Amino acid sequence: MKNLLINTVVHRKQAIKDNSKAVLHSKFIGLPMILKNRDPQDELCCEKLCLNGAILLSPFRIDLGKCSFCKRCSIAFPKLICFTSHHKLSATSREMLIIDDTCDNESYEKRAILPLKSKIFKRSLSLRSVCAGGNGACEAELNACFNVNFDAGRYGIKMVASPRHADGIIISGPITGNMAVALEKAFEATPNPKLIILLGCDAISGGVFANSKNLNRSFLDRNIPTLYIPGAPPHPQTIIHGIMKMLDRV
Amino acid sequence: MWKSIKNCELVNLKELEPLLITQLREEILDKLHSGGRLLALFCDRNIHFIYCIIALDKHSQLMMGCAFIHGAAEYESLTQHFPACEMFERELFETTHIRPLNHPNLKPLRNHSNPFLFHQVHSKEVHEVGVGPVHAGIIEPGYFRFNALGEKILHLEIQLGYQHKGIEKLFEDFSKQGRGLHLEPLAEAIVGDSAIAHTLAYVHAIESLCKLKVPKRAQHIRTLALELERIGNHLGNIGDILGDIGYYLGKDAFIALKTEVINAMLKICGSRFGISLISVGGVNYSLADDFVQELAELLTRVKHNAKVYFKIHVTENSSVLSRLEGTGIVTLQDAMNHGFVGLTARSCGMDLDVRSDYPCGVFQEYPIKNTLFENGDVFDRTVIRFVEILHSIEWIIQDLERYTTSESREIFLHNSSSTHYLANHCVVSLVEGWRGEIMHCVLTDDNGHFERYKIKDASFNNWNALPLAVYGEGISDFPLCNKSFNLSYSGHDL
Fold this sequence. Notes:
The complex is a heterodimer of chains A (about 250) and B (about 500).
Chain A: H1 2-11, E1 32-34, H2 40-49, E2 55-56, E3 61-63, H3 72-76, E4 81-83, E5 98-99, H4 105-112, E6 125-131, H5 137-145, E7 157-159, E8 168-172, H6 180-189, E9 195-199, H7 200-205, H8 218-222, E10 227-229, H9 236-246
Parallel strand pairs in A: 6-7, 6-8, 8-9, 9-10
Antiparallel strand pairs in A: 1-4, 2-3, 3-5
Chain B: E1 3-5, E2 10-12, H1 21-33, E3 37-43, E4 49-56, E5 61-68, E6 74-76, H2 86-96, E7 99-101, E8 126-131, E9 143-149, E10 152-159, H3 167-176, H4 184-188, H5 195-210, H6 216-244, H7 248-269, E11 278-279, E12 282-283, H8 289-315, H9 318-324, H10 332-338, H11 342-346, H12 354-357, H13 362-365, H14 378-405, E13 425-432, E14 437-444, E15 450-456, H15 458-462, H16 465-470, H17 478-485, H18 489-493
Parallel strand pairs in B: 6-7
Antiparallel strand pairs in B: 1-5, 2-13, 3-4, 4-5, 8-9, 9-10, 11-12, 13-14, 14-15
Helix pairs in contact in B: 6-7, 6-14, 6-17, 7-8, 8-14
């Protein structure tokens, strides 16, 4: 019993005091930067290397919505792309996720997220997770957002068990054909007004599975997502920052 | 003609003489009777041949055989004699439409185009409960249908396939574009929490096909990452098991420990799941000397804390014990009949571990301790995780010393002169992920592209363990039993 109490006291502290001020380890693979003075030949090879098709040519750009942050382009072409440890990657529009060589940490952070105009979700946001083909990593990181370390619950953000209790859904995974109906039903069951958050590059663009014939992404043709959280999987801090910024709380 | 091979050994497909399906069936039955274990049963891309791989675990050997399909429409199923073949035959039927006759449960595995017919119990007292595919927690989708008598589960049927993304086909398609050597991001995306294990299986296969010899140091880092992944996930699982019985204090203690471990992975490669670490030819990141020191200290601390927490929150906590002990029993006989692998098998006394049965890389020289438990209940599946954590930590700490004293500093093979893989060959690569055995089998065609890329995650074998474990238990114990296996939906559905 004594041990139990000591153990409880040891854990009764906030592991991360303020998520908005958190800085990730310098090795973290975050926002990529396109370097200037590039060799056009390298650009071509680099575009071919990327399995996800995240590299766009003329002009040379990176689509964060497709990038799986595997860093292999930067390892192969260190003079072309370098990855910073900047984790604030989320954006509220698909176009914002495409970055060119003028983009840096500060400018990206400033323009990427337009906070919601409505204030009704600001103090309390309940979300329902719908995994539509995700491989478990995005789900694990979403779970981690609410564990003792990151504790997003303190901001009034919570995950609920039913879409009927939710203010929006978080979709992870590339949306497989077999999950299309279930996703539709979960979204229908969510009361208006409602948000759609896409978690991870698989959900945003299909990621590495984009060319698979077993996907059915028509849901996204009919509905416009509110927030895009890039990464494969995104770091919990990326998720928390994205949602907090969308709610205009950081 | 059967070929006998080792883990990661090449087979020339031309030396593999095809049999007739009926002959192949007889020989598979022979081998299974004499102690073999079915590892894979699949057809090639154009549905001309059926390939079969059988594992002889005691001899560390794999047997590979193949048969012509030749318009054959049916054969007598293997499942009626060996229930372990059930999933494999269902999968084969779904891809080839060759009907296994007298198969007791020939239902679709991943194809949802026809409605799924669940088993029904006709009784006024029995009620059906359907759960899924969207679950209350933040997990992957799957559908569970319970037949319950009061609170007791009479029967559970699981329908999966919601996650089916056609990963095997993507491997083959990318290879046709000449990108077969750089598919690590795809391998990393098969099962998110086993990214290292699946990527290892992929790179081992490709390195065998290309005859690349990976530097020693890279092998050390790879194995270290594999064990780190095991430690992280096992810690998280113990926490989740405690969470599912409503004991959140214990959960939080273990999840906090898990976070430390996976954050150490981030310090190696920039991703908490080990994404971007491994590439064909080596690893992308070296361990700095001061980091080696830091990692050893961290793991010593984790080991100490894990022991303390496990004592307080599990073994000396009577309310936890009363929920875990004797719940969700899988017997040794069931495990052998149904061909379970990994920690599910080891927790009921089946000695099965790729790291000792088919050692590869560093494990050949420095074996890791193996653990067996007997009862096969939730408690044993929890304790085996704990013991494996301790063994892995011990092994890593020893290996870190070997790592620092090794002379060669090379971590990547740069002179990749032979970047073309062999045509008409096949290689089977086995890796022990934290759930259990992971198999990748690559067949190349005349042009050296992947003719077929077959993946088998441990979850594919083990999903049948869940209905056995919950049989006769209360519905309220289902989440606990489910979490004690913690199987991957994505690894099953591919």
